[in-house]
Amino acid sequence: MSEASKYFLAKSTVKAADKEHRRKINFNIGKYNAAVPLGKQQFVNEQLIREKAKNIKWKAIETLDKQLEKFEAIITKRGAKVIWAEDELQALDAIKTICEEKKCKMIVKSKSMVTEEIHLNDFLEKNGIESIETDLGEYIQQLDGEPPYHIVTPAMHKSKEDVAKLFAEKLGTDPKATPSELTMTARKELREKYTQAEIGITGANFIIADIGGIAVTENEGNARLTSALPQTHIVIAGIEKVLPTMTDLALFWPLLATFGTGQRVTVYNSIFTGPRQPNETDGPEEMYVILLDNGRLNLLENEKLRESLHCIRCGACLNACPVYKNIGGHSYGTTYSGPIGAVVTPHMKGMSEWKHLSYASTLCGNCTEVCPMKINLHGLLVENRHEAVDQGHHSFNEKIAWKMWKLGMLRRSWMNVAGGNTKNWIVNTMVKGWSDHRSKMEFPKKSFNQLWNEKYGK
Question: Angle at the Cα of 321 (from 315 to 325), degrees rounded to 5?
Fold first, then answer.
């Protein structure tokens, strides 16, 4: 058993029994479930819209090399510098080099899952550079020393009382402060940082190939301040974020907003096409775009798993997943949690260490049902399991157990030999691990097949 698997089992066991944790998650996801149907009313034909989005993203991923080269050529002409990073180390080295050139002591950063993926804040801290999260949810998590809990809502697992207590401990506010008061406190703290920071770092919701642009969508305006006030703007984006044309945003911005938060469209939507131009009065003097692979090409090369790169990181599959709602985001032990995280992580970080995530699913298909990009998520989880076995990531005992199960299932008479009590003993006693994390299995005394034969004959 891998270290990641041991962590997952230990963490999920605790969280699954934490009723207060479940109450908070159900409350917050309940608000999401109430908002999404209202947001969907803007689509005359939701299924047609999702099918169109899937086709656009399919084209982008199937021509990924050409789309990225087009993007680079256009944005470079306007003065931006594009850096290609094969892995986490190359991305961090590039950022370190830029920071050293600018003699940077402070960075402001807007919400970005890719920066969490490469553990940027920890890296900057080790190199003596202060990094400030400016998204409210990310800021709360940073104050508490925790990674994001959810792709879209980083502090979903915290109640307003939890946040008030945290702010009182870290910022000296009133422990009974209201959400509005807490928000104003965070705003006051963060506004000073924008003017002090030498560099601002953002992610990218979409890379727009035909105009050489970076599209960022948000609700707080912090990404605009992060990109505009510091002298240098760094964008870190996964290579899969490409859309072929700017007109695609007319579909993808509302789609991301509705399936992500239930909004018709988010409050702030920006497109960055380079550093400040000669005829412009504001914006950064320099702009860097780091295009990150970090295992994404493994998914691109895999014909069956390739469609996972269509994901727009809306978080809908997490909100629909019964496993996620019971064990929470931190139990996964990786940047991308929930169904999409279980699909992509084994290919981005190694199947032998992370194959267990693909088994952390009921295969109910709810994730596939709600995905705006119509990604066959539960099917890809099964494919991951298949590939893990093909690659030899299973024990000898497991192999023998499945062979015995197959032999039994193919022979009805064998299945009827053992009664309910015998089956109970085999599963609950002989099969190690079954009852460690589950209730004991209780088989009926007679199988359905036996009852049918008794009533109707063979």
Answer: 95
The model carries a pTM of 0.91
Radius of gyration of the chain (CA): 25
Q: Which of 64, 84, 67, 59 is nearest to 210 (CA)?
A: 67
DSSP state of 58: H
- What distance lies between CA 360 and its chain's CA centroid? 15
Q: Give φ, ψ of 87 to 5 degrees.
A: -150, -175
Provide the token pair at 189.
Answer: 């703290």
Q: What strands lie across the sheet with 81-85, from one edge to the other?
A: 81-85, 286-292, 232-238, 199-202, 106-109, 130-133
Pair of tokens at residue 353 = 């260490």
Q: What is the pLDDT of residues 192-241, one digit of tens each?
A: 999 999 999 999 999 999 999 999 999 999 999 999 999 999 999 999 99
Q: The tokens of 89 are what?
A: 């180390």
CATH classification number, 43-294, choose in 3.90.600.10, 3.20.20.70, 3.40.50.10420, 3.90.550.10: 3.40.50.10420
Rounded to the nearest 10°, the torsion over CA 222, 226, 229, 234 is -160
